[in-house]
Amino acid sequence: MTAIGIFYFATEYGHSVVDVAQDIEQRGFESLWLPEHTHIPASRKTPYASGAELPKEYAHTLDPFVALAAAATVTERIRLATGISLLIERDTITTAKTVATLDVLSQGRAILGVGGGWNREEAEHHGVEWSRRFQKLEEQIGALKAIWTREEASFSGEHIRFDPIWSWPKPIQRPHPPIVLGGETDHTLRRVIKHCDGWLPRARDPENVLSGIVRLHELAREADRDPESISINVFAPRPDAVLINQFKDMDVERIILWLPPEERDGISRRLDGYTRFL
Questions:
Q1: Other CB atoms closer than 10 Å to residue 214's CB: what's the count?
Q2: What whole-number distance in Å separates Cα of residue 266 and Cα of residue 249?
Q3: Domain 3-277 - what CATH class?
Q4: pLDDT score of 52 more than 90
Q5: For labelling, which of 56, 117, 152, 169 has a CA lying 20 to 30 Å from the CA of 176?
Q6: Across all residues in the chain, what is the average pLDDT?
Q7: Which residues contact 194 (CB under 8 A, 6 or more apart)?
Q8: Among 52, 36, 99, 87, which residue's Cα sits nearest to residue 191?
């Protein structure tokens, strides 16, 4: 059965993310997904993908892991996910501990959604070499898995290197919290198959996602990986019954519906409307 999750653009001025988490769980949704931007460069050299002005909320996002930890304290069932974490902008060892801590505090409910991002200047402020960000991301995923699954972990890559370390807590989920990768290209699909537990495509072009699912399964079989071992997490489709049913018919694991940073009444109306898809 396809689960329905909720993405919330959590900010300091919208409805409290803690209250939203409770509202989501009480209505029977499966997961809460939060975005990440450490900052938005004032230069604005990188254009917003939609071509319009960048919405205000991008510069106001809460830290997703702190917010998800707060949500964990007031919920019992919903999965707690990043959609997405800009892993390339984060220290790998610190992130391993952060995600493991969230998984422990939530009793095994963490999901790590990651991606390479779209804002070049934002990444470069963190010392990221933009043209090689995906090589770094692949190494980071490998290093996270090593830290989470080994008592004494080490990693030797071009971007990520560390001698043997001890790091606890280990995540409750075994072998580790699911890692899902955002993006829609063939390169993304191949990275999902090689490094990740799931795919997180944006549904701006639903037909592209539907054909991408078929393509992902083809590539998985070519790589001798069971397609059923890869979760499909469709991100922010239009809340249209026909479209939602198309994705359900493809047996995707979850569909993630979008909530903007509104006040309580607006959030409640949207969530009530979304319950028809449960």
A1: 11
A2: 30
A3: alpha beta
A4: no
A5: 117
A6: 97
A7: 138, 223
A8: 87
For residues 31 and 95, what is the distance between their CA atoms, to the nearest angstrom? 21
What angle is formed at CA 6 by the lines to CA 276 and CA 229, rounded to 5 degrees? 100
- pLDDT surpassing 90 at residue 149: yes
pLDDT in tens, 150-172: 999 999 999 999 999 999 999 99
Locate tokens 């004494």: which residue?
Answer: 152
The pLDDT assigned to 176 comes to 98
> Which residue, 242, 229, 227, 250, is CA-closest to 175?
229
H helix or E strand, kind and range, residue 7: strand 3-8
Neighbouring residues of 100: CB distance < 8 A, sequence distance ≥ 6: 147, 148, 167, 168, 169, 170, 171
The DSSP code for 61 is B
Q: For residue 22, give both structure tokens.
A: 């409770």
Cβ atoms of 170 and 181 closer than 8 Å: no
Looking at residue 51, its pLDDT comes to: 78
| Higher per-residue pLDDT: 49 or 146 | 146
Is residue 79 classed as helix, strand or coil in its secondary structure? strand
Of 218, 173, 172, 158, the C-alpha closest to 193 is: 218
Mean pLDDT for the stretch of residues 197-215 = 97
Helix axes 92-105, 64-72, angle to 10 degrees: 20
